[in-house]
Amino acid sequence: MTYTPDSIRSITLSTLRLPLAVPISDAKVFTGRQKPMTEVAFLIAEIETAQGFSGHGFSYSKRGGGPAQYAHAKEVAGAAIGEDPNDIEKLYTKLLWAGASVGRSGVATQALAAIDIALYDLKAKRAGLPLSKLLGSHRDSVRTYNTSGGFLNASLDEVRDRATQSIEEGIGGIKIKVGLPDSAEDLRRVRAVRDHIGDAMPLMVDANQQWDRATALRMGRRFEDLELVWIEEPLDAYDAEGHADLARSLDTPIATGEMLASVAEHERLIEARACDIMQPDAPRVGGITQFLRLMALADRAGLDLAPHFAMEIHLHLAACYPREPWVEHFDWLDPLFDERLETKNGRMIVPDRLGLGITFSDQARAWVTESVTIGE
């Protein structure tokens, strides 16, 4: 039996905006750097091949950047038409060079991510496998923690109620936001949640880059007795040296990486030993091709892994990491898909559906504001 070469016939790109039920605020809002988030912009890529196979993927942008991702993807996607969809790394490189004038990170790679992810979805479906099995999984479920219930716009009572709900739904950890101008209020909220969920339940905090070095060290020391799983983004995302100092000074592990937009930027974190837990985001770094490179680097450095957001993608990737990882549970994206991911006994179950195991809902289609098909 031999392989019959296939080719990409068309790529349909769509942009949509997912409205959030309530405006969301983390520390960046309270420090005046950003306004509350009311929606998330998505770039969807749907690929069809000459032999009738299909795959879809997505990238996203919180607040600004959605139109830029869509515009860049429209400009470069034509370079993939006629190519064999199985040669994913070759295609990533070709698309990257098609738009290399604007760089190899940020919008340039985030626009490619939707196409790259769609190619992996297609390849797994073609093989008759879930994506995790195509890549080679180490487990069929992954530890999961909830973030969407712990934002700073929520009252302490709301945060506690949502923590209870998450635990009842089989989620295995709770993360809440910190970084308020009033550090005493941060301490009050974190201690109250620890008391509420008990000492045995994993608890994480996330400062969203809003502390300076002195504040981060002081707050980290105050949190030491709470047995946190990690302190996330205590400093500016690009302050590798500051994160490294914290990681050496505190018993509580340091987690960061979600805001970085390339493998090269993560390499600097790894070389500086700037974290204990790496948190890459596949749509932000350019897709699954780049994420797999990061997983290899992180494993070699002995780091733990906790991918950021987009659990529909990251569940499959985390299942393939040699060390026991975490995956972040967000319910924000539920309206976009017909399927739901299952949580049980503190873990998220890897679906046995082919590819990513998701299909875009009628509601997602209704939110599309612009769409274009490139190719036939």
Please outline the helices and strands.
Elements: E1 8-24, H1 27-30, E2 37-49, E3 54-62, H2 66-76, H3 88-98, H4 107-127, H5 131-135, E4 141-146, H6 156-168, E5 174-177, H7 183-197, E6 203-206, H8 213-223, E7 230-232, H9 240-249, E8 254-256, H10 263-271, E9 277-278, H11 282-285, H12 288-300, E10 304-305, H13 311-318, E11 326-329, E12 343-344, E13 347-349, H14 362-367, E14 368-375
Parallel strand pairs: 4-11, 5-6, 6-7, 7-8, 8-9, 9-10
Antiparallel strand pairs: 1-2, 1-14, 2-3, 4-13, 12-13
Helix pairs in contact: 2-4, 3-4, 6-7, 8-9, 10-12
**What is the average of the pLDDT values?**
96
Report Rg: 20 Å
Distance between the termini: 29 Å
How would you write the strand order of the largest sheet? 5-6-7-8-9-10
The general outline is globular
Beta strands, count: 14
Percent strand: 15-25%
Computed structural class = alpha/beta
- Separate helix tally: 14
Q: Strand count, sense and closure of the main sheet?
A: 6 strands, parallel
Helix content: 25-40%
The sequence of SSEs as H and E is EHEEHHHHEHEHEHEHEHEHHEHEEEHE
Low-confidence stretches: none
